[in-house]
Write a structure and sequence with these properties.
Length: about 550
């Protein structure tokens, strides 16, 4: 689809875009969702890689605003938004304008959660790229197309056209065909881009930020910073490891590889790579068969809802959790001292579990007492879904956290950190890309739209409509809907059982509304920041009719 065609379809005026898209309603054209095309494509994908997570295939060019269009032509109200990773919905004209390319519009402006919602050309792309050069014995699909040698040196006419478009783009898009190794060879406008993007929306009290590739590696590297700082403190501030430490770490032995630990909370989620997986405590299938660090985990407060009805009881529950943290520090001090504590403002994957500001203040106080890093994992709550840019702003801490991790709606991943957590030596926090200038450009535009359209106010207003509606449904369907909770549009509620939860997700999808599950039996809402009152009404009406 040509850029001018997309601009025409979506409207070049942002207000016109918001109004037109808000008026759109779900349209289901197949007898069931996923439809026959998605089902067939899922079977084809299974010949190449595991496709069991795939919900349906998406036509990203036709998707607009709060609505995702699948390969079968169904237009679905998306209250899940690629696992909470799309701040402005689909094909927002400001992001389209930022990209100013043809094929890059749908692949970059709508970064897919590929494991669940792959684009319609995904299988062909795999066949033409990764499988076309697969090593002998690893060519999974019998219908793989062989690639002629000439294809490596001579692009098709369409490819040449797309490359010509990319080359003509502005300075940011120069980084698209020439993706820089940012840690060693950053582009000339890199500093200004950081100031205009990540630092312009930095949580209060932060002036330093490190880019990464995804949420889980942001957590991993934040942990590394915590461990390095802890060891520097043990060396009385000497930042230079001894020769014995340098030698022993090469054999994964102490003192160079110290016996330290990081504390997380049960039912918390912090990623799936090897280090962060030791912190993750949601589902056994995430962890089974994989070696893990022997690190402590304590109970996260299991509060009763609505929070305002159980203030005294919830205070006791939170104090018990804090007592557990204090006890863990004491128990582990002689064997593997705790160098860091990581916590989510809302335990999202674990069931949207909330805690009060007093709990988090108490947790930070314990960390300070034991010289442990206080890391706030805002991968899912960052960039506005709670009605503030950062969910931990609701806590009104006396001093900022030591580090804050981010990803998803921010387009780019990384972590903010206090200066004392920055390793001095080069290459201690490093990878090839260390971020992505293309994603920084999208973030810059996203931040402008959030400010210009006052989207944080919209999130709070829409959140109130949703919470009022859900509480009304809860009162009318007691025993079916319970535990309505949330901030902004970061909202969840419980069903009686996991089976009922899964049935509701499926039933609502058949009626054109996409939602997600979390924890044992919770439904979670993760809409874009542009989710407005018309979408709220469609969601609530559909939910009510499906219960």
């Amino acid at each position: 689809m040509a850029l001018r065609s997309i601009s025409h379809n979506l409207g070049t005026n942002l207000c016109r875009y918001s109004t037109a898209v808000a008026a759109a309603k779900p349209i289901i054209v197949t007898s069931s969702v996923p439809g026959p095309k998605s089902i067939e494509m899922k079977k084809r994908l299974a010949q190449i890689q595991n496709s069991s997570n795939v919900n349906f295939f998406v036509d990203y060019e036709k998707s607009q605003g709060n609505h995702v269009v699948d390969v079968d032509g169904n237009r679905i109200l998306d209250a899940f938004t690629q696992i909470s990773s799309m701040p402005l919905g689909y094909n927002h004209p400001a992001l389209v304008k930022t990209m100013q390319s043809n094929s890059a519009v749908t692949t970059a402006a709508n970064r897919p959660a590929m494991g669940m919602f792959p684009p319609v050309d995904f299988i062909e792309k795999l066949i033409q790229t990764l499988l076309s050069v697969a090593p002998p014995g690893m060519k999974a699909s019998s219908n793989r197309r062989p690639v002629a040698q000439s294809q490596f040196v001579s692009a098709s006419e369409g490819d040449r056209e797309r490359m010509a478009v990319a080359v003509r783009l502005a300075s940011t898009i120069d980084s698209f065909p020439n993706r820089p190794a940012m840690g060693m060879f950053p582009p000339v406008d890199f500093i200004e881009k950081l100031i205009q993007t990540l630092l312009s929306v930095a949580p209060p009290g932060f002036s330093k930020v490190q880019q990464m590739a995804c949420g889980t590696c942001s957590v991993e590297n934040a942990l590394k910073c915590a461990f390095v700082k802890y060891r520097n403190d043990e060396r009385s501030g000497d930042i230079n490891p001894s020769q014995a430490e340098l030698d022993s770490c090469m054999d994964n032995q102490s003192p160079g590889s110290p016996q330290l630990s990081a504390l997380s909370f049960k039912t918390g989620f912090h990623g799936r790579t090897l280090g962060s997986l030791s912190l993750t405590r949601t589902k056994p299938m995430h962890k089974v068969d994989v070696p893990a660090f022997d690190w402590p985990a304590v109970e996260f407060p299991r509060l009763k809802y609505p929070l305002e009805d159980y203030v005294d009881e919830n205070k006791k529950i939170e104090q018990e959790a804090l007592n557990g943290v204090q006890q863990a520090f004491e128990n582990w001090s002689k064997t593997k001292p705790i160098a860091a504590v990581i916590v989510e403002p809302v335990q999202a994957e674990g069931g949207d579990k909330h805690a009060s500001a007093d709990f988090f203040k108490g947790l930070q106080s314990i960390c300070k007492q034991h010289n442990a890093a206080f890391i706030v994992d805002e991968v899912q709550t960052g960039c506005g879904p709670t009605g503030k840019m950062w969910a931990h702003e609701y806590w009104n801490l006396d001093t900022p956290p030591d580090m804050v991790t981010f990803s998803k709606k921010m387009h780019i991943a990384g972590y903010y950190f206090q200066p004392e957590f920055e390793p001095v030596q080069p290459y201690r926090i490093f990878n090839t890309w260390v971020g992505d200038p293309l994603r920084l450009a999208l973030l810059e535009t996203t931040v402008d739209v959030i400010r210009n359209e006052k989207l944080l106010d919209r999130v709070q207003n829409s959140g109130k409509v949703l919470m009022d509606g859900l509480n009304s449904i809860q009162r009318g369907k007691a025993g079916t809907v319970s535990g309505v909770r949330g901030k902004g549009t970061f909202i969840a509620f419980d069903l009686p059982t996991e089976q009922r939860r899964q049935q509701l997700i499926s039933t609502m999808l058949q009626k054109g509304v996409l939602i997600g599950g979390c924890g044992e039996k919770a439904i979670r809402m993760r809409p874009a920041l542009i989710f407005d009152q018309p979408e709220c009404e469609v969601f609530l009406d559909t939910l009510d009719s499906c219960l």
